[in-house]
Amino acid sequence: MNKSAFSPLWKEEDWWAVWFGFIIILSAVFGIIKMVPKIGKWTDNPMNVFYIIKNGEVVGNIFIPLLILWIILGCLTWLGIFIMKGDWKKYLAGYSVVFFLSIISYIIANQLQIKAYGLGYAFWALIIGLLISNTIGTPKWLLAGAKTEMYIKTGLVLLGAEILFNKILKLGGPGLFVAWLVTPTVIIFMFIFGTKILKMISKPLVIIIAAATSVCGVSAAIAAAASSKAKKEELTLAVGMTLIFTVIMMVLMPPFIKAIGLDAIIGAAWMGGTIDSTGAVVAAGAMLGPEAEKVAAVVKMIQNILIGVVAFFIAFYWVTKVERNPGAPKPSLMEIWIRMPKFIVGFVAASLIFSFILAPTMGLEMVESQVLDVVTSKCRGWLFCMAFVSIGLESNFKELANQLVGGKPIILYIIGQSFNLFLTLFAAWLAFGGILWPKPF
């Protein structure tokens, strides 16, 4: 076979996200990487986040682990930039600042009072990036390190490892019913509403908002943006709206569920299918009790599987309908494959490998305690945080304002999310209220 057939494997950022993700995964599985540092919580002194405290005594710090993480991620991603013939000289300097800003984001987010309000690292990372880009402006050397898609696509490959099928099967039919029936219905409704009723010009913006609303927020927005070739300003707008409404829903939904006397398990499934962030879903579910927390988390996890499916169908629809000229021949499977985001291959492969190879051979408990909890999930958090900083650094309020003309994106989100809330509540009642299946608890 011609060498050129293999060139995309090392020349495209999508494929490098797969290689980065699996290098990290294999390093964790074989014990090369045994832990990833986590920024601690603090009340009055932000420096406390760097110290490991047990029983009121300092037993260690994370300065060296943070330095090692900076070096490992820097060298790994620099190699990809170098082989892809990017500006590798400026990249290292820009990457270092992005990593430092990510630390700042985590520190702000982990202040106990701020944490209680649900304002996570993603929110602060985006705010910090936006403040820099819209005040002093983002210098070109810093933009060279603001590799939004590379960071978040690698993080999504790691997310795939956390989606274990044995956990999903615990909720079986009810979980699948809530997550997989409502999600495509909401996407189709929002796309039709945005393009036909609101008559929004940018179809990529409509599909990004629809995917972010119905699947899992930012992760789905990135996948949809890659499949529809959306502009970065459109992605930033969708991400910003999603983060704001995620915080609002996380804070308001649990007390509302309690106030109306809704069954906690039904409420948990409702939140799992509507709140646009796994972390926010878990936090909101915990407010309703331990069983509710598990149900909310698993429903969201089942929904997360749809990231790959949604990305594929968006790519398919864009190639066959949106971008196809009238009278042109039908596109080949190769054209659809070229358009589909390749990091989705890594996302699905990681899920299958962990679910059907590593979990059975190593044991689920060992996989979770030695690989997922201490390495992949924490590393994913750092990559996502760097991606949110990068989104902010690349965004300009004037360009965002152009996307908000007439307020149509906000109207689309509010109408779509309202439809999502009502439909998911009905599905949660049918699935977890003892109507179609026996109650799980």
Work out the number of β strands: 2
Helices and strands, in order, run as: HHEEHHHHHHHHHHHHHHHHHHH
Question: Would you identify the regions where 5 or more consecutive residues have pLDDT less than 50?
Answer: 1-6
Alpha-carbon distance between the two ends: 56 Å
The largest pleated sheet is described as: 2 strands, antiparallel
Decide which structural class fits the backbone.
Answer: mainly alpha
Compute the gyration radius: what is it?
21 Å
Broad shape: globular
Number of helices: 21
Q: Strands of the biggest beta sheet: in what spatial order?
A: 1-2
Summarize the amount of helix as a percent range: over 70%
How many domains is the backbone divided into?
Answer: 1
> β content, as a range?
under 5%
Assembly type of the shown chains? single chain
* Overall average pLDDT: 88
Describe the model.
- The chain is mostly helical.
- Strands 1-2 form a two-stranded antiparallel sheet.
- A hairpin with a 2-residue loop joins strand 1 and strand 2.
- Helix 2 runs antiparallel to helix 19, helix 4 packs across helix 6 and helix 11 runs parallel beside helix 16.
- The longest helix has 33 residues.
Write the layout of secondary structure elements.
Blueprint: H1 8-11, H2 13-29, E1 51-54, E2 57-61, H3 63-83, H4 88-109, H5 112-116, H6 121-134, H7 140-143, H8 148-162, H9 165-197, H10 203-216, H11 218-228, H12 232-259, H13 264-274, H14 278-286, H15 290-304, H16 306-322, H17 333-339, H18 343-362, H19 364-393, H20 397-403, H21 408-432
Antiparallel strand pairs: 1-2
Helix pairs in contact: 2-8, 2-18, 2-19, 3-4, 4-6, 4-19, 6-19, 8-18, 8-19, 9-10, 9-13, 9-15, 9-21, 10-11, 10-12, 10-16, 10-21, 11-12, 11-16, 12-14, 13-14, 13-15, 13-21, 14-15, 16-17, 16-18, 18-19
